[in-house]
């Protein structure tokens, strides 16, 4: 399923290290798409490194990892949705977009109310961009 900013799913994207994570900030930068989920749980055990680089909604952090036989559990879930501001030329796509491709993915989203111009701008969201790639597309560029 293509990434949509208002589908209620988390986009799980992997990157090799902090430098690769910085590439994600560039317009054509992308990570390795791992999954889409309503929630995710990471269990970290003692390993070759003492930290992992993580980021949620653009906010990075360095997650300390166990140095003994313990484990660190990080749980992430969708906590709700807020309205976001977007320009008219925003490339993000949402469930309520008028694109035929989106309506084919979510047929329940195409209805008489969806064509009401008063709410069209309100339905626009900011987020899922063209730089998001499936794992098979990573080496094609």
TrEMBL record:
Organism the protein comes from: Arundo donax
Gene Ontology BP annotations: phospholipase C-activating G protein-coupled receptor signaling pathway
Source superkingdom: Eukaryota
Disordered, as annotated region: 101-120
Composition bias, Acidic residues: 111-120
Residue ranges of domain Diacylglycerol kinase accessory in the record: 3-60
An example Gene Ontology CC term for this record: membrane
Annotated protein name in UniProt: Diacylglycerol kinase accessory domain-containing protein
InterPro entries for the chain: DGK, Diacylglycerol_kin_accessory, NAD/diacylglycerol_kinase_sf
Upper classification of the organism: Eukaryota, Viridiplantae, Streptophyta, Embryophyta, Tracheophyta
Keywords of the record: ATP-binding, Kinase, Nucleotide-binding, Transferase
